[in-house]
Automatic annotation (TrEMBL):
The keyword NADP applies. One of its GO terms (molecular function) is oxidoreductase activity. It holds the Pfam family Aldo_ket_red. This is NADP-dependent oxidoreductase domain-containing protein. Residues 4-177 form the NADP-dependent oxidoreductase domain. The keyword Acetylation does not apply. InterPro entries: K_chnl_volt-dep_bsu_KCNAB-rel, NAD(P)_OxRdtase_dom_sf, NADP_OxRdtase_dom. Keywords: NADP, Oxidoreductase. Coiled coil: none annotated.
Amino acid sequence: MNYVIDQGWAFYWGTSMWTAAQISEACEIADRLGLVRPIVEQPIYSVLDRNKVEFEYVDLYKKYKLGLTTWSPLAYGALTGKYSGGTPEGSRMENPMYKAISPEFAARVEKADKLKPVAQKLGISLAELALAWCVSNENVSTVMIGAKTPAQLEQNLKALEAVEKITPEVKAEIDALIPFVPEPPKPDALTLLRSQHL
């Protein structure tokens, strides 16, 4: 990566869906060899996907000043509210590929629906609540969003106005409805593939 940085093709580099151990190893090797260490990790993060950000990476934020560019804050759409009544026509979950990567999607929608009263009480949509909740985490540098329509983009950006509503009390209410139970890291297919080639 230093070659790419030295050529001016990039200013910094980061990782995506690496384990905490892999990030630590990369930082230690970079420090030992006088190279630029990764400054950002790109993990999945939402109210329904919290383990990496809130458990696995906790020691990395201060030790390496690691930033986060998180993705899927709406949990593949489960946190939008549009799947509450089933799968809408033309939605991504009609696509067999998405069904394969999220087989427990219906259960995730059921969990997400528990948050609707919280969103209503705050006067925002479920999607705005989910996005604002992600942005409110002090360790999150950036929340990547995706939108198929200008209206979706506008709604996603509107969540920035709701961040101040995500108080410690609101977070506690969310935690009571969807408890976070830390789990030891599980290697996924990409982690296993990387470990064979690095």
